[in-house]
Every structure is written in structure tokens, then in C-alpha cells.
Amino acid sequence: MEQNNWYDTFTEILYKKYPKKKHLLKALMDLLSLEREAVYRRLRKEVFFSIHEIVTIATAWNISLDEITRVDSGKILFQLHHANYFSPSKKEVDFMQFIIQSIYFINNYPKTEFLDICNKLPRQLITGFEQINKFYLFKWLYQHGIEVETLPFAKINISEENIKITKDYNQAIKQVPNTNFIFDQRIFSSLINDIQYFCSVYLITDEEKELIKKDLLALIDYLWEVANRGCYPETQNKVNLYISQLKIETGYCYTVTPELNVFYIHVFDMHEIYSFHSEMVSNFISWMQLKKRASIQISEVDEKNRIEFFSKQRQLAESL
Predict the structure, then answer these.
(1) Which CATH fold topology does 3-69 show?
(2) Is the pTM of this model over 0.85?
(3) How far apart are CA 166 and CA 169, in angstroms?
């Protein structure tokens, strides 16, 4: 294939990612650390992107060789992202900041939709509650991050940088125009069992358990308000809450926007597998939507089930 042909295809793909030129320019400037005029020259084909720049773009935006060459190899690319939630590297911090910036960008489109199928309380919600967020980091560290010693809950110190990113993420995610959560009906009982276990092995004190319990009750009250209103109270952006009647084995998410569709799967609490492949994303979205068949919507509608669900969760939390 001649250089101009594949290069035209490559730039077409870039414009599919960011149809508005000013958004594409800004994204490329940030990604490649180039001045505006340097990016303009590449898009006008006065200068070609270097091989290193193409690889950087393709890696960051999950563009496959098939797309660039228009040769169908029959392969679907997935991207595995390792996440150290307790002590993230600079690369992981940069990635999280990129996610936050991307959330604010896609929120310019009213039809943007986020769906999270959860077998544990999702990060989108727990980041607003300090003690619950700390407990999840503690549990993650206990299971995946400690090689030498076991630290008690009291010695878990979260860096200021991590706290700031957590707050920024919590504020950003509430800007999404349309959000859907499908909860496993045992989502709170599983968390309470985990807390009780760590209390039983004396890694969490009774006083610390009370602090977590207070946060847990506050989270339940917050979700009750979200369910009644059908939106985030802070932003008025739409939120639908569903309770699955079937067990949810693992967590799945997708984000759909006019410019970019992506799904990701949570694996072992340590990794997330992403794909931007259009056919795979389309199939995955259809499959996830089917999960609503075995779920009950408790936000705005079905007051009886909403009251029963939250009453049960409060009783469980009080049992701590």
C-alpha cells in the first residue's frame, strides 16, 4: 500500500476518534507533547507522523494494524491494564488523570451512556465515602499488594495524591449524562462479610468498624436519595439503579458516546481488560442490556421493591 493511501486511512481513523478538529488537535498535542502547528502540519500531510508517534497513538487509542491497512486479519485486540490502586506508579497516575479528562470530554454529549454491572460496590460510588474507600484499598492490599507483612487497617495511609485523584474521579463520574448500575442483590452482604472477617482476625478494631459502618449507612442513604430522584443529587444527571435477581459473577462496564465506544471487564481486582473493537463493543453492549431482563429497576419506579431493598441493606449494615 502506498504511503499516502495508508496515511489517509490513518488520519481518517483519527478523525473518527475525534470528529471535531479542535478536539483532535488538543488530544494529539497532549499525547505527543507537540505544539499546535506541528500537529497541524502532520494532519495536513506536510509532515508525516513518525513511526514512534504512530505507535504511541495506536497504543494509547487502541488502533489496530487491521484498521490502518484495511486488511481484516480476523483478530480482535484487547488491552490489559494493570491497576495498583494503593500505590500507583506515575504511569498509572497519568492514566487515571487521562480517564478523568476523558470523562469530562465525553460529557459534552447528552447521549453519553455508562452501564456498570456490579458484584461489588463500584468505584464510582465508594470514592465519595472515605472509610469505605479505605477499606477497599485495605482489602486490595491484603489480597494483592503485600509481600512481607500484613498491615492492620489503622496503618493504611493513603497518599495526598491518591486522595486528590479519588476526589477528582468522584466529581467527574457524576457529570456523565446517563448512568446505569445493575447490582448483585448480595452486594452489601458480601461487603459486610468481608468487614466481619477482618474484625475476626483483629486487623480492624471495633472503633474502626464503627467508622466504616457509619460510612456504609451514609452510602445507603445516598443511594436511597439517588433511587428516589433517579439522578445524582449534585448534578441532576440521570441514574438508573437495578437489582439483579441472578448472581453476578464478575464486573462489566461499557461507555457509549457519539465519538467513542469502549467496554471493559474487571479481572481479579487487579486488572481491567478493554476493547474498542466496534463489532465486539456492539455485541457486548447488546449482551449487557439483556442483563436487565433478570433485574428489577428500583430507581423512580417500583417503590415497594425499592423500600424493601434499602430496608434490608440498612438492617445488614446495622448488624455490623
Answers:
(1) 434 Repressor (Amino-terminal Domain) (1.10.260)
(2) no
(3) 5
